[in-house]
Amino acid sequence: MRYSGLRVIKEALTGHKGWKPAWRDPEPKPSYDYVIIGGGGHGLATAYYLAKQFGKTRIAVIEKGWIGGGNVGRNTTIIRSNYLLDGNEPFYEFSLKLWEGLEQELNYNAMVSQRGILNLIHSDPQRDAFVRRGNAMILNGADAALLSADQVRAEYPFLNFNDARFPIKGGLAQRRGGTVRHDAVAWGYARGADSHGVDIIQNCEVTGFRIENGVCKGVETSRGFIGATKVAACVAGSSGRLMAKAEMRLPIESHVLQAFVSEGLKPVIPGVITYGAGHFYCSQSDKGGLVFGGDLDGYNSYAQRGNLPVVEDVVESGMSMIPALGRARLLRMWGGIMDMSMDGSPIIDRTHIDGLYFNGGWCYGGFKATPASGFAYAHLLATDTPHDTATAYRFDRFRRGYMIDEKGMGAQPNLH
Amino acid sequence: MIINHPLLGPRDSQEFTYLGDAALIDRPDWQAEDAVDQFHDYLYLRDNPAGIHRELWFHETGDRSWLVVTRDTTTHEITSVELARDVARARGRSK
User: Fold this and answer.
1) Neighboring chain A residues of B47 at a CB cutoff of 8 Å
2) Which helix (H) or strand (E) covers residue A10, if one does?
3) Distance from B94 to chain A by nearest Cα, in Å?
4) Deepest in the core among A136, A151, A227, A370, taking most CB within 10 A?
5) For A158-183, b where at least 16 C-beta lie within 10 A, e where not — what string?
6) CB contact under 8 A, B47 and A302
7) Looking at beta carbons, which residues of chain B come within 8 Å of A252?
């Protein structure tokens, strides 16, 4: 069923009796060509592109809970491609381009809103660094604009410009950045994948891998054994827990990141704004809530909740960037589990076990990467070669000394 | 979280910074034949368990001692706190 304005009107006039479930609820088959573990944004996107772009069949996505119930449902919905390093920027720009065509591609309203992202500058060295980053973005086909303090003031008059300690000196803007309705991304990809014959199997937890003579033959699940020619792990946040079942140790630690939303307010914040003197980012959802977040709690965690010191730290940063934030009341806060990798960049690669593939280590930047991650992972699964924009996301980059360390923090996951 | 410091008693976790898995105490022998592999694994790979985790915390704004904290990563419950010095000595790592 194609969705359209006409369809909405027709259904409105006929009592909304014609809507069908957006995807089937099939029983698992004994075997598939491709079994993708993880029904989040990345896993569903992988299945979609594998079927649509690469023409593969006999694909299943297995999910231990319900689809879209993990990090794709727990993030701050920001899309952008404002990276510096060559290993990253082409990939994220590819992702942003896919976002731009996503709704037409999927025939699904994901509320992609290119309302712009602004990184604030508070010092001369920071301006130098952002000029460099902006140039790197432009060289890779992305857009970037350096704004003076007056230009920032004209667009965002509510910011704390004359703060004694961290005055705002300007900003680096990416106008094509913005926000997306996060749940709709999972649902849109699920519907698209399902319409291309992908089996989406929910409430099906992987309990182990069947590995014989170094070859992965399939997965043991709570709903029985499912055979597969290729098994694709795609469970960022729980990668450590899953891959331990294949006796793999990863260059990843799991950390908790908290996010917050205020009560609904009238439109006040026109885009996404990030603070340059602390770790804080804020946007306003279409419902009116201010959506914001900051640092990791900083210790290994699989609990989807954090602690109060970071709450205080985040709202202090927020108050010092937007003093008016203090008049808003916090509505909800929650935690998500991040695959924090050793250099702050992801991994899309084969493993040393034949037939077992890995996608993870997204740190807290996985949402914006969803379309490109799915596309690149599908490319790897279909062709056994990495996608042109994802050649750097290899397991062996640590051994070979080719880290993609945007923040220059070294092998200290909680600092990325 | 409250970390029950063996010398100072219960302290707020905000006073500490976090390093990671306490296995970092076991630095490989640089003269070993396979030192490159050992250091790769030591530096970059983690067990990252969901459950009991022994980890290194540094009392940065306190007495600047290193602690080995045993904590459950699924509940954040801390079950034991030792001086890292004692743990390292028990493993023959220090004098």
Assistant:
1) 240, 244, 249
2) helix A5-13
3) 24
4) A370
5) ebbeeeeebebbbbbbbebbbbbbbb
6) no
7) 46, 48
- Cβ-nearest to B48 among A250, A398, A399: A250
Which range of residues forms the domain containing residue A328?
A: 117-177+253-341
Phi, then psi, of A16 in degrees rounded to 5: 55, 40
Length of chain B: 95
Cα atoms in the Cβ-side hemisphere of radius 13 Å centred on A382: 21
Q: What spatial distance separates the first Cα and last Cα of chain B, rounded to whole Å?
A: 32
Do A163 and A285 fall into the same domain?
Answer: yes
| A165 interfacial to chain B (CB closer than 8 Å) | no
CB of A398 within 8 Å of a chain B CB? The answer is yes
CATH code assigned at A327 = 3.30.9.10
pLDDT digit string, tens, across residues B30-71: 999 999 999 999 999 999 999 999 999 999 999 999 999 999
Position A112 in a domain: no
Report the Cα A124 to chain-centroid distance in Å. 31
Q: Which of A296, A322, A341 is the last residue of a domain?
A: A341
Which residues lie across from A60 on neighbouring strands?
A35, A199
Q: Is the pLDDT at A389 greater than 90, yes or no?
A: yes
Which residues fall within 8 angstroms of residue A314, CB to CB, at 6 or more apart? A258, A260, A279, A280, A292, A293, A294, A295
Q: Cα(A177)–Cα(A95) distance, rounded to whole angstroms?
A: 11
Q: Give me the pLDDT at residue B95, please.
A: 64
Please name which of A281, A324, A319 lies closest in space to residue A117, comparing C-alpha atoms: A281
Q: Which residues of A touch B75 (CB under 8 A)?
A: 303
B17 contact residues in A (CB cutoff 8 A): 298
Burial pattern B2-37, b for ≥16 Cβ within 10 A else e, equals ebebeeeeebebbbbebbbbbeebeebeeeeeeeee
> Which two three-digit tokens encode residue B50?
């969901």
Specify the amino acid at residue A326.
G
Judged on CB neighbours under 10 Å (0-12, 13-18, 19+), A85 is middle
Q: Tell me the C-alpha distance between A114 and A175, whole Å.
A: 7
The CATH class given to the B2-90 domain equals: alpha beta
Residue ranges in A124-269 assigned as alpha helix (H): 124-139, 149-155, 182-195, 239-243
User: Which residues in chain A have their CB less than 8 angstroms from residue B48's CB?
Assistant: 240-241, 244, 249-250, 252-254, 300
Q: Is A414 on the interface with B (CB under 8 A)?
A: yes
Which residue in chain A is spatially nearest to B43 when comparing CA positions?
A411
Q: Report the domain count for chain A.
A: 2
* Residue B94 pLDDT > 80: no
Tokens representing A359 are 């996608």
